[in-house]
Prior knowledge:
single chain; 65% helix; elongated
Amino acid sequence: QAFKVAEGDAINVALRARLDFLNTLGQLYDAERRVYVAADALRAGLDVDAAYRVSTVEDTVFDLKPGDATWNLGVGLDLPVDRLRERNAYRRSLITLAQQRRTTSLQQDSIKQTLRTELRSLEQLRESGRWTRPAVSCRWDASRSATLSTPPMT
Length: 154
């Protein structure tokens, strides 16, 4: 009895099970993350620094003098005015992402084409087996009947 696999099912299994294709997909996801990180580097930055310092009485650790406490607060603003290096990195990451998408698509198409070719050749073998099996059976029957009908030589 012939075992048949639907083409779509075979393609889905192949794309989920082939390690080389899964590695290519991983590289695509990495390229997408690099675009996100490079885009994030183009944004403005705001840093807030705060410090609180309390002095102690001489040679003691726990005898605090709260009246001598000092507070410091700082704000740093990083505006995206001159981000040539970051902008170039973002452009490179976009180019790499486009290349990786093409590579992934080409590999996926190659897997599909190879699988379709293999399924087609299996189907051809199955069909040729259907035609040759009865012929072999007929030849076998003919040779058997010829052997049975031939009188023994004495």
